[in-house]
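Side project, low priority. Logging it here so it doesn't get lost.
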Amino acid sequence: AWHHGTAADGTLNPPPAAGPGDVLLAGAFYVTGTAELRAGGRFVEPGRTLGHAIAAGTAVDVDEAIDLAVAEALLAARPTRPFRLGDREIGAGAVFVIAEGGVNHNGEVALAMRLVDAAAEAGADAVKFQTFDPAALAAAGAPTAGYQRRAGVEAADQREMLERLALPASAWRELQAHAQDRGLVFLSTPFDDGSAELLDRLDVPAFKVGSGELTNTPFITRLARRGRPMLVSTGMADMVEVAAAVDAVRAGGDVPLALFHCVSSYPASPADANLRAMETMRLSLIHISEPTRPY
């Protein structure tokens, strides 16, 4: 039984006076914020803290090491929810390979078409690009980064660099058709609402979210509201930020979601791959990718 009473709205309140044995502390746990705990000095704020009953068989009261093993077994047995991505099923066991076209076309449509061909010839399942409006991403005069200048970028600022890398809006339908003709699922990462609208009109099978947008939770929620599966990269993020992104997807309508483990080092050394992070995310949140240097 609850050691606090639950009101009709789900909030917790101290139980009425009861005799010994009438109220049982039954393995409750609490989630609160540091500021709230410091302000009130207690885990439960009457009339404010919400109570959630956890179904039997889905929780373990951990007192000993064996209890942790039981909890891990329960998590490992939790089924992953497969979903459709074009004509393929994701999460049903088979590996799904996405070839990264990115902006490696240098703004040239013909080169983008050749990247599609290369992906098909390599045996990939999908090819992915990046769709963005330079004016929506960078202010005029924003300087290029040091690593960009060292790599030979000669643009006057970030916006000019992005303008050189952007494909014209008219090219995307043709690029999508070419990918489909080559038997590939066509994907692209939108970086702004206008680009998301463009891809939505193309009826892409999913929206990809880059690691740099993981903490842009309002944008993630707006993407999820469009009702398409979400493929979300998690580079540079900690688990709290990943969980917040998952919550942002759920707030947009609980669309199918795959999390991509990413080291944000290109190409990543196998020593830095930390592949067990995929299992950590699967057990604690819910799928998965990793760009690594070939052995």
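Brief comment: The radius of gyration is 24 Å.
Revisit when time allows.
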